[in-house]
């Protein structure tokens, strides 16, 4: 059961990564800016609990 949950999490994490990259790639280069590390770190930390959503 734990192995199944782990495999599902890995699959969802890959899906999340692809969706995130696709979204980032939609932003025009002239609109991209280096993010503040405090904002990014907290957002990424929180996102690990919502990967399946």
Which key phrases capture this entry?
mainly alpha; about 55 residues; 2 helices; elongated; single chain
The gist of it:
This protein is mostly helical and 53 residues long.
Protein described:
- The protein has 53 residues and is mostly helical.
- The chain has one domain.
- Helices cover 68% and strands 0% of the residues.
- It contains 2 helices and no strands.
- It has helices at 2-26, 37-47.
- The longest helix has 25 residues, at 2-26.
- 0% of the residues are buried.
- The mean pLDDT is 89.
Please specify the SSE layout and strand pairing.
Layout lengths: L1 H25 L10 H11 L6
What profile does the largest beta sheet have? none
Total number of helices: 2
| Strand portion | under 5%
N/C terminus separation = 21 Å
The low-pLDDT segments are none
Please provide the count of β strands: 0
Structural class, judged by helices and strands?
mainly alpha
| Pattern of helices and strands | HH
Total number of domains: 1
The gross shape turns out to be: elongated
Helix residue percentage: 55-70%
